[in-house]
Amino acid sequence: MIREFRPDDLERCVALLIAAYDGEPWNNHWTVATASRYLNEFVASAHFVGFVLCENELIVGALFAHRKTWWTNDELFVDELFVGPEFQRQGYGWRLLSHAEAYAKSAGLAGLTLLTNRYFPAKTFYEKHGYQEADHVVFLYRVV
């Protein structure tokens, strides 16, 4: 079952984010404090949209997004999509993404946009489900 994110879901989502990203292949080093702050930043945004996927009342995946204003038509920008490691590769991520697409369509939004690392499996996941690289966009970064 997929439902809207509620504030009392945050603790479980923090644990899921840590479990999903601290292992292979990402090998991040999230702490409860940093993951809580990170997810809270999305939740606190004015146009936050969030969904959780539950299996027998247990949250096993989440999608954090926000409505983004664009000159042609607003869109849904996916900030985070994560599924607990023991539930990955079972279609849960696709169910969350598909739910977000249905939400965007029903809200009259143009579509979904997101960023992902081209060197990790997530890129293949998104491409498998019809997402394409935008040739007109470049993501730039500088370490300071």
Describe the structure in brief.
With 144 residues, this protein is α+β, with helices and mostly antiparallel strands. The protein is 33% helix and 24% strand.
Structural class per helix/strand content?
Answer: alpha+beta
H/E topology pattern = EHHEEEHEH
Taking strands numbered 1, 2, ... along the chain, how are they ordered across the largest sheet?
1-2-3-4-5
Number of strand segments = 5
Helix share bin:
25-40%
Give the C-alpha Rg: 15 Å
Characteristic terms for this protein:
alpha+beta, five-stranded mixed sheet, 144 residues, 4 helices, globular
Task: Write up this protein.
By secondary structure, the chain is α+β, with helices and mostly antiparallel strands. The protein is 33% helix and 24% strand. It is built from four helices and five strands; from the N terminus they run βααβββαβα. Helix 1 crosses helix 2 (32-43). The longest helix has 15 residues, at 92-106. The protein is globular and about 40 Å long.
Which secondary structure elements does this structure contain, and how are they paired or packed?
Layout: E1 2-4, H1 10-22, H2 32-43, E2 48-55, E3 58-68, E4 75-83, H3 92-106, E5 112-114, H4 121-128
Parallel strand pairs: 4-5
Antiparallel strand pairs: 1-2, 2-3, 3-4
Helix pairs in contact: 1-2
